[in-house]
């Protein structure tokens, strides 16, 4: 019809390219909500997945007594564990934060089996060392610690690691500094021998890399992906069964990682 004006093509294209401001506002609001929900789920998932603090160490290192003292404050006679024990431990002055303490058996035939079960949930690891028997057990302590440190899941998650030098109430106990130096030396030796061994013998089949620390440098704990700290403590305490445990540093560390 001659009297009808046809829309100019350029004007039509401009209309198509210019979205309604109201629609644009709604889309942006929906996008913001979706991003917020996604971030919230990621944070909550991480909190749920990493609430455990694992207590590791050789038999008779004092893990179970530390576990009991932290939870009850009281001394109790313990014996070698053959299964795990777990409980919620509340930290801080107001006890508003919490972690799940898991005491794992230290027997050679059980410890790696239980580590495999719980390692993915670990927010932190407390590796308990018998400071009195350390000089005699240093090779066994280093061997177990090496197996923990080269585990692929532990390396990936990089949980905070505390080496708790227990039994400091005994006069012959070795200091945390000496224990750190000796462990670094033994771990360096293990790294050299394991990296030279066939893959079927060096533990790589269990998922751990052969190399620990930085190649070409002597090993020290600062080379690890997780933060490592050493402290001295005593689950028994200087006054024995009737006294309090001496692990204020351990309690502060747990509050920090919770």
From TrEMBL:
Family matches, as PANTHER family: ADP-RIBOSYLATION FACTOR-RELATED PROTEIN 1
Highest taxon in the source lineage: Eukaryota
Single GO biological process annotation from the record: protein localization to Golgi apparatus
Subcellular localization: Endoplasmic reticulum membrane
Pfam families with a match to the protein in the record: SRPRB
Primary location group: endoplasmic reticulum
Mode of membrane association: Single-pass membrane protein
Gene: Srprb
Residue ranges of coiled coil: none
Membrane-crossing segments per the record: 22-40
InterPro entries cross-referenced by the UniProt entry: P-loop_NTPase (IPR027417), Small_GTPase_ARF (IPR024156), SRP_receptor_beta_su (IPR019009)
The protein, known as: Signal recognition particle receptor subunit beta
PROSITE patterns in the cross-refs: ARF
Keywords in alphabetical order: Endoplasmic reticulum, GTP-binding, Membrane, Nucleotide-binding, Receptor, Transmembrane, Transmembrane helix
Record flagged with keyword Endoplasmic reticulum: yes
UniProt entry tagged with the keyword Endoplasmic reticulum: yes
GO molecular function, one term: GTP binding
GO cellular component: endoplasmic reticulum membrane; Golgi apparatus
Family: Belongs to the SRP receptor beta subunit family.
